[in-house]
Amino acid sequence: MVFEAGAKRPRDVPPVLLNGKSLVMVDQFRYLGHILTTDLKDNADIERERRALSVRANMIARRFARCTQQVKVTLFRAYCTSLYSCSLWADYTKRSYSDLRVVYNNAFRTMLGLPRFCSASGMFAAARTDCFHTTMRKRAASLVRRVRASSNIVLKMIGDRVDCPFLRHCCDRHVAVTMPLRKF
Question: Which superkingdom heads the taxonomic lineage of this protein's source (predicted)?
Fold first, then answer.
């Protein structure tokens, strides 16, 4: 895989050989479950997570349809809020992010047998469960906390910088989703 630099993509890339065999060039690759693309955008990985969430939620809704609401909420928290590698998402479209949010909300509605157009914030509040934006903020905060607590000196230096672009990204993408940050 050859990554693009902005809008520029190398035209003539010489073949890379491994044991005398040329490696195949790809536009995307799954690494540790996260989809990497040549343009370094996260839309493909968000789509992967959207589909996986839909499958998990439908399976739980079918298998546990006769359970109590509390059991369903517990299952939702356990299986539908993990959103694997979401704290790494840095460059994506509003559309792909919104599509994931809609699936998250609809999954909860389906599991609890709620009407299609009921208030998302109301249903999460009534069930005392984190909404999509809260889940995303918690994942970003968890990553920041782990980077800052790391024994790796490079990660620790990144996390301890006040002007750190990584911290700014986490705040811009996940905290400012519902409330814009004030500049002083």
Answer: Eukaryota
What secondary structure letter does DSSP report for 164? Answer: -
Q: Is 19 exposed, middle or buried (0-12, 13-18, 19+ CB in 10 A)?
A: exposed
| 3-state SS, residue 37 | strand
Residue with the two structure tokens 């782990």: 146
Answer whether 0.90 is exceeded by the pTM: no
Cα 20 to the center of its chain, rounded Å: 38
CB–CB of 79/42 below 8 Å? no
Round to whole Å and give the CA distance between 31 and 33.
Answer: 5
- Per residue in 122-172, pLDDT (tens digit) is 999 999 999 999 999 888 888 888 888 889 998 888 878 877 777 777 777
Model confidence pLDDT, tens digit, residues 18-39: 999 999 989 999 999 999 999 9
Which single residue is written with the structure tokens 């439908």?
A: 58
Alpha-carbon span 101 to 95, nearest angstrom? 10
What is d(CA 26, CA 125) in angstroms, rounded to the nearest whole number? 44
Contact 72, 65 (CB under 8 A): no
